[in-house]
Amino acid sequence: MGKKADIAVVGLGVMGENLILNMASNGFTVACYNRTTSKVDAFVDGRAAGKNIIGCHSIGELITTLKRPRKLMLMIQAGKAVDEFIASVLSFLDTGDVIIDGGNSHFMDTARRMREVESNGLYYVGAGISGGEQGALTGPSIMPGGSAEAWHIVRPIFQTICAFTGDGSPCCDWVGEGGAGHFVKMVHNGIEYGDMQLICETYQIMKDGLGLSNREMADVFGRWNQGPLASYLIAITSHILTHQDGDGRATVDRILDVAAQKGTGKWTVVTALNVGQPLTLIGEAVFARCLSALKDERVAASRIFWGPPARFQGDRAAAIDDLEQALYASKIVSYAQGYQLMRAVAAEQGWHLNYGGIALMWRGGCIIRSVFLRDIKQAFDADPDLVNLMLAPFFKTAIENAQAGWRRTAALAIHLGIPAPAIGAALAYYDGYRTARLPANLLQAQRDYFGAHTYERVDKPRGLFFHTHWNGNREATASKTPLA
Predict the structure, then answer these.
(1) Which of 71, 185, 266, 331 is catalytic?
(2) What's the CA gap between 34 and 15, in Å, rounded?
(3) Active site includes 377?
(4) How far is the CA of 93 from the CAs of 60, 63, 86, 469, in angstroms?
(5) Integer-rounded Cα radius of gyration of the chain
(6) What is d(CA 61, CA 59) in angstroms, rounded to the nearest whole number?
(7) Is the separation of the CB atoms in 250 and 236 below 8 Å?
(8) 101 conformational bin, left if phi > 0, alpha if psi -120 to 50, beta if neither
(9) Cα dihedral sign for 456, 457, 461, 467?
(10) Is residue 331 annotated as a catalytic residue, yes or no?
(11) How would you class 451 by CB atoms within 10 Å of its CB: exposed for 0-12, middle for 13-18, buried for 19 or more?
């Protein structure tokens, strides 16, 4: 019998291959399998040549190469393919073996699969992995959840191959049971949508509003990357804006303005709707991608509708400073909303999430990595029960300092006719959150008028509901049971 593998990886897309190479470079022996076995041979004879990587041509062969307890990691397309593979492999595994799903599965699917796998005496881990192809190769952020008993089995590998913060902390820790790991990765992706949209809105205001060149914008983003906005996404934006095709023309200017999406942003927004959380900024980021997809309609509409001419008259340097403040304040709102969603779903699912620990996991390897996350970790370390990130002293002060520039930026975008839905949604959320009395009293009156849906009163105890006979003279009637 040859050398046994520490772990097996199924699926030889770029992410799967790079994770395998990462594991092998860190001293682990890895078995690999792909349904199209020619990909196994090409990988073993190519990128994996000379490394501790064992190619397998069948599930049976794959399982026999593994040390016990066996660890089998799936890097395959989310959805039906995961269920089908689990069904095909169960008969080959024994009590205590671990199946790991490293794809972007929906967290409720992961919770269901964990129950099914555990009923067969096995353990199941849903591991959210962020960092893209390069992160998979050099160290991603890993967010594992599922069968708690499996953590000590997979931890030695995961906390070796993951990214690390500057102080040496691993960007991987146990998230919680059920689908907690994939849920936190889903929220990460939703926040990623928000970050990218905010940056894109800032880019368009600078380009179409202020008339900056790509080189000038690259310099602005480069300068911002030295301050509180320092992040992977800001850094790559600066780099993108300086990249040229072979003929010397800017690459970014030749890219079609139609954004794609894989679904995790939509899942985040749908989940927020299901639990009644105002995830407005990320929602606008998702819908902005949807609007971008209506390219032909937008081109036709551009010939029909008119708006204000996008000509800026004023101090460009001051406007750029305002943009920095608007981007920073909006980013605070985006993360505040994301963390509120995590808190709401954790309460519903019975999870005990470590919110500071989640920020730590995101500080390295993942797409949203930034210095900003250090401040989030410190906020939750100081107050683990913090109900809204904006209420932390550091972020409260940051928003107060940024508010004037934030408002001027939103007004500027409106004045110039430049769409900035995420920046606007962030400001509207902040204004709504700080408003003690919203117009929902009128909304409830309207609902009661046409549907007898009842309402509560400010002059009566909470939990007592009233219905008014709006077209009559009778007094409002009280009930302890509201109508839907």
Answers:
(1) 185
(2) 13
(3) no
(4) 10, 8, 10, 66
(5) 26
(6) 5
(7) no
(8) beta
(9) negative
(10) no
(11) exposed
Closest CA to 331 of 202, 184, 194: 194
Q: Phi, psi (5° rounding) for residue 395?
A: -75, -30
In angstroms, the CA 369 to CA 364 distance is: 5
The one-letter amino acid at 405? G
Cα–Cα distance list, 326 to 175, 307, 400, 428 (Å): 32, 23, 11, 13
- 72 forms beta bridges with 8, 99
Q: Which residue's structure tokens are 């959380």?
A: 277
d(CA 207, CA 380): 37
DSSP 47-81: TTTTSSEEEESSHHHHHHTBPSSPEEEE-S-SSHH
Counting as low any pLDDT under 50, the low residues of the chain are none
pLDDT at position 484 is 62
CA atoms within 13 A on the CB side of 397: 4
φ and ψ at 123, to 5 degrees? -110, 150
Q: Interior CA angle at 15 toward 10 and 20, to 5°? A: 60
CA atoms within 13 A on the CB side of 251: 10
Distances (CA, A) of 267 to 15, 250, 264, 283, 425: 22, 34, 5, 10, 19
Residue with tokens 């591991």: 127
Q: How far are the Cα atoms of 118, 275, 336, 399 from residue 331, in angstroms, in the given order?
A: 40, 22, 8, 10
The predicted pLDDT at position 103 comes to 94
pLDDT at 475: 67
Distances in whole angstroms, Cα of residue 280 to Cα of each of 148, 226, 262, 269: 33, 29, 19, 8
The residue type at 388: N
pLDDT digits (tens, 9 = 90+) for 384-405: 999 999 999 999 999 999 999 9
Find the catalytic residue in 17, 39, 71, 192: 192
C-alpha 185 chain-centroid distance: 6
Q: What residues form DSSP beta bridges with 141?
A: 130
- Its pTM stands at 0.94
